[in-house]
Amino acid sequence: MDHPKYIFITGGVTSSLGKGIIASSLGKLLQARGLSVTIQKFDPYLNIDPGTLNPYEHGECYVTDDGAETDLDLGHYERFLNESTSQGNNVTTGRIYNNVITKERNGEYLGKTVQVIPHITDEIKANFYKLAKTKKYDVIITEIGGCVGDIESLPFIEAVRQVKWDVGANNFLVIHLTLIPYLKAAKELKTKPTQHSVKQLLEAGIQPDILVCRSEYTLPTDVKRKLALFCNVELNCVIEAMDADTIYDVPLLMRKEKLDERVMKKLKLSTKENTNLEDWRIFLGKLKNPLNEVKIGLIGKYVSLPDAYKSIIESFTHAAAETECKVDLQLISSEDIDKDCVAKQLQELDGILVAPGFGERGIEGKIETVKFAREQQIPFFGICLGMQVAVVEFARNVLKLEGAFSTEMDPNTPHPVIDMMAEQKKITQLGGTMRLGAYPCDLKKGSKVASAYGKLHITERHRHRFEFNNKYLKDYEANGMMATGINPDTKLVEIVELKDHPWFVGTQYHPEYRSTALNPHPLFVRFVKAALDFQKKKNN
Hints:
Blueprint: E1 5-11, H1 19-32, E2 37-43, H2 55-58, E3 62-63, E4 69-70, H3 73-81, E5 90-92, H4 93-105, H5 116-134, E6 139-144, H6 154-167, E7 172-179, E8 182-183, E9 188-189, H7 192-203, E10 210-215, H8 221-231, E11 238-242, H9 250-256, H10 259-266, H11 278-288, E12 292-300, H12 310-323, E13 325-333, H13 342-346, E14 351-354, H14 363-375, E15 380-383, H15 385-397, E16 405-406, E17 416-420, E18 435-443, H16 448-453, E19 457-464, E20 466-468, H17 473-478, E21 481-486, E22 493-498, E23 504-507, H18 522-539
């Protein structure tokens, strides 16, 4: 194959239909046939990246190995395909316009009037094709964020239209994901919203090749016929996508609907291998048939929107399958916790995770949570700010350092046990300036983390500005909080754990970014096992 086949996934009727899950599932099916696949997401908003977006606005910000702050859908791509993504896999309108304006300021357009067509659309297309220059792929799937008809996505849709003429009809395919609502009063499924959505695509010059129809009910043949007729697609290219028990069911449901077969046929793709999804079936079998169950609390301040902790929640799903133990995850707001109610709120839990975040809202609730987990010997896992909070709690209640805090919350604290990294102090811009991406870490022999990983040298992804203050390290280790993971270059403390505790681990990095369905993260697996051991001990 000279150049890759390009598949574009657009959405209609409403947002949040699951384009990312359909893209990931199709990618998984094509990968299982022996094809090399990557997925990219193009977002129509004007932010350069999601790094400065409030999690309530956009869910979590996912970080790649190369330090890109990206859309949470890239997490799905990695969890399904078991392949790393990069800066090139997520592009926004903001980045496109920024590139074009920079070129204009540098005189690269030779005095031409810069316009949406061709300059913006050419820049979008250049980014569509960029991944093919970094590695040889058989298929590149591109998810276009938002909804067809949104003003901000018009340049993307026009760029997609032009791709067909660049690469040829046999190398180009459009899948349109849409909603078939059910009207209870009329007791029928309605196709009109989909017809209108496809009509908008046609007005933009794009004929979808395949319709994937989200629905709460199975689509009768007459509804499929109507959609095929009015949307000008073949009958067998109207694919039903009913709500699933878990997102990890979707590849098998799409296989049953023959989505991958339709794609292969239209793109004239052939492979020697049949779809090999045995590992995926084993994973699903273990996930759906647990032998035990534990209750774990996720303590954070964005709990009203679970997508803010998407990677952590999915990491527990992967660990649950690996341990054959269902994780009943309780999302608890740290703002609802204080020293008077902490026991009542948390005493039923078998494990406690204090989540990452920024800012001081809910911080005292997190500190009380750590104190409770430490004193009651409940398995504890702190990630990023969760680790920093554990350090602050230990300083106040064990080292007796009154007023100890992070300089993020209190710049004038007498004991800055967590302080801003030296290289961060001169930075004024917020976007893309944190310590981001993969960094190495050396683990202490005999530590709980070294035992979990089964090795002494690891690489993990980061997203932070503040760090453990090494001036206090001797005091901590003398009192039982050990630094068991150290960055070999900067000597930055990456991991702390308590000596006399069944499982008390805090990581400055984000292990959740590395967990995939078929490669669960060892720290989450070991944490779930620790919760199970605690539960058994409690019951006995």
